[in-house]
């Protein structure tokens, strides 16, 4: 089929590139001409393992094109995917401006009987509003808007495209279901064929439930510290129950990224519009917002004074295998440290360029773990990159003056560290388990705010 994808961010680019790789002719449209030029030269504007190789392969095969020209993008296509941002407003409401604008612009060029597929995460009822918009704008074209939410995890998005747990398709008739299903004919998986409203809710409910699991185990972790239990052993035992499962039961300093924070807020807001409360989701959000206090408490207990203390921050991305720093807990920690006038030395194998764009020269950037931890008083592990797990123990063991390690991702093994090194981890009993009930005020001190769409 001939496919156009609007948006060259994580969702749009991965979707478009991988669709071209399974035999479709794909055009990726973006109004950002700088991005288009990068993509035409074979460069991916963000880090996603394996994506650049597939992109170059399909450009060479003439399956994949990039454009900012609307007529070229939409005039001769069978299906248009909407993969633009839906950023949260101050009250958590998903901003659908870009979604509606994309449909409005594309529909004016599209041929009759074409399909528009919404990949962007949108509230229930949005697809039907877009159907009504198309009937109003181009009443004679018989365009259909359907929902096909994405479930791509940053860092493993390519793998998730080829081996998804399921593909959800929301449409109002079986003909559209089957047409969209045929797009993925080479993908072996289960299909969930449903209405647009159900498809939209599946996406929000999925992300909300995963957020709840993370916040639940983080609350359990704090209690484990008080009673002398080990949260990793607790999570292992709980996860053996097949009704629960072990995924997303890893304690840490909270979730971040472009999905969970935004989607939980949007779901809470959506419910409020129908006079309903999402009390469990709201609680998960509140727990996540507070979880950073665990790290700040331990920083304050470990430093004689934070002002002028040398503190290493290892890991800046919100998770490993991505350069995405949106809503990363590491940024809240950095903001607090800079507010307290600490000297902050940072390392991340992929996310330092994005961090430099945001913080400029207020941080000291290092190309290796060893350089980042040199002469430090405290070392914070905030992203569980393999390179950090591999190199940090030896780097610390070789230092004459040993810093305290606060492992906010429970990724280090105590046995690999010398016995004179103090290691603090989430949900594991330590000598300091009594903290003042402090609400930290963190001012954002970044030199610029820059999101990756």
From TrEMBL:
Keywords: NAD, Oxidoreductase
Domain of life: Bacteria
GO biological process: polysaccharide biosynthetic process; UDP-glucuronate biosynthetic process
Metabolic or biological pathway, per its Swiss-Prot or TrEMBL entry: Nucleotide-sugar biosynthesis; UDP-alpha-D-glucuronate biosynthesis; UDP-alpha-D-glucuronate from UDP-alpha-D-glucose: step 1/1
Binding residues for NAD(+): 30, 35, 86, 121, 154, 262, 326
Enzyme class, spelled out: oxidoreductase
Listed EC numbers: 1.1.1.22
Recorded catalytic activity of this chain's protein: UDP-alpha-D-glucose + 2 NAD(+) + H2O = UDP-alpha-D-glucuronate + 2 NADH + 3 H(+)
Sequence similarity: Belongs to the UDP-glucose/GDP-mannose dehydrogenase family.
Protein's recorded name: UDP-glucose 6-dehydrogenase
């Amino acid at each position: 089929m001939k496919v156009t994808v609007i948006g060259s961010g994580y969702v749009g680019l991965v979707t478009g590139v991988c669709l071209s790789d399974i035999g479709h002719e794909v055009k990726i449209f973006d109004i950002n001409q700088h991005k288009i030029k990068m993509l035409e030269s074979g460069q991916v504007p963000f880090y996603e393992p394996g994506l650049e190789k597939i992109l170059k392969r399909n450009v060479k095969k003439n399956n994949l094109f990039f454009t900012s020209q609307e007529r070229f993008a939409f005039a001769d296509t069978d299906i248009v995917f909407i993969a633009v941002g839906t950023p949260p407003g101050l009250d958590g409401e998903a901003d659908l401006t870009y979604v509606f604008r994309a449909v409005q612009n594309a529909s004016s060029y599209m041929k009759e009987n074409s399909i528009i597929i919404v990949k962007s995460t949108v509230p229930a009822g949005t697809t039907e509003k877009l159907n009504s918009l198309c009937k109003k704008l181009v009443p004679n074209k018989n365009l259909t808007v359907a929902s096909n939410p994405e479930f791509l995890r940053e860092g493993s998005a390519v793998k998730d495209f080829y081996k998804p747990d399921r593909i959800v398709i929301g449409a109002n008739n079986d003909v559209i279901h089957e047409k969209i299903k045929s797009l993925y004919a080479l993908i072996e998986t289960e299909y969930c064929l449903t209405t647009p409203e159900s498809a939209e809710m599946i996406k929000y409910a999925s992300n909300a439930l995963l957020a709840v699991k993370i916040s639940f185990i983080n609350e359990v972790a704090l209690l484990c510290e008080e009673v002398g239990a080990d949260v990793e052993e607790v999570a292992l035992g709980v996860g053996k129950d097949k009704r629960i499962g072990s995924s997303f039961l890893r304690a840490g300093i909270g979730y971040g990224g472009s999905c969970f924070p935004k989607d939980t807020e949007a779901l809470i807001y959506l419910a409020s519009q129908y006079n309903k409360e999402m009390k469990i989701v709201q609680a998960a959000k509140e727990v996540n917002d507070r979880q950073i206090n665990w790290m700040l408490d331990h920083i304050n207990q470990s430093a004689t004074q934070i002002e002028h203390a040398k503190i290493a921050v290892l890991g800046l991305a919100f998770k490993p295998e991505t350069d995405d720093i949106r809503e990363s807990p590491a940024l809240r920690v950095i903001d607090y440290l800079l507010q307290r006038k600490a000297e902050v030395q940072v390392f991340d194998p992929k996310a330092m360029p994005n961090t430099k764009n945001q913080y400029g020269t207020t941080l000291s950037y290092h190309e290796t773990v060893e350089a980042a931890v040199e002469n430090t008083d405290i070392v914070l592990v905030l992203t569980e990159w393999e390179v950090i797990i591999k190199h940090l123990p030896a780097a610390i063991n070789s230092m004459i003056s040993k810093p305290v390690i606060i492992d906010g991702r429970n990724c280090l093994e105590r046995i690999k560290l010398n016995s004179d090194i103090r290691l603090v981890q989430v949900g594991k009993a330590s000598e300091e388990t009594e903290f003042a009930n402090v609400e930290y005020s963190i001012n954002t001190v970044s030199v610029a705010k820059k999101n990756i769409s």
